[in-house]
Amino acid sequence: MAKEQTDRTTLDLFAEERRPGRPKTSPLSRDEQLRINKRNQLKRDKVNGLRRVELKLNEDAVAILNQLADEKNMSRSELIEEMLMSQLAQVYEPSNR
């Protein structure tokens, strides 16, 4: 039986053939790579003076925040930070200390 290049049903004929695709550049598993990348991201954030804060919002609030962020051409995170800093500046004016 002749080997046909488009025939992939007889796998033993193609065991030595390399398949096209993205080459594996890291010996680590994807899960380990993600863990390391997250750790590095947290280190970068800490050096930049950023701290992680998690909050839960209802869908309506998130939709409004997304819309406002799009209108201002900024990320939702940047918008929330801007709003918080503005509110904090009003609450903690130098005359209130």
UniProtKB/TrEMBL annotation:
InterPro entries: CopG (IPR002145), Ribbon_hlx_hlx (IPR010985). Residues 51-90 form the Ribbon-helix-helix protein CopG domain. Residues 1-20 have a biased composition (Basic and acidic residues). Pfam families: RHH_1. Residues 1-30 are annotated as: Disordered. One of its GO terms (biological process) is regulation of DNA-templated transcription. This is LexA regulated protein. It comes from Providencia stuartii. The lineage of its organism: Bacteria, Pseudomonadati, Pseudomonadota, Gammaproteobacteria, Enterobacterales.
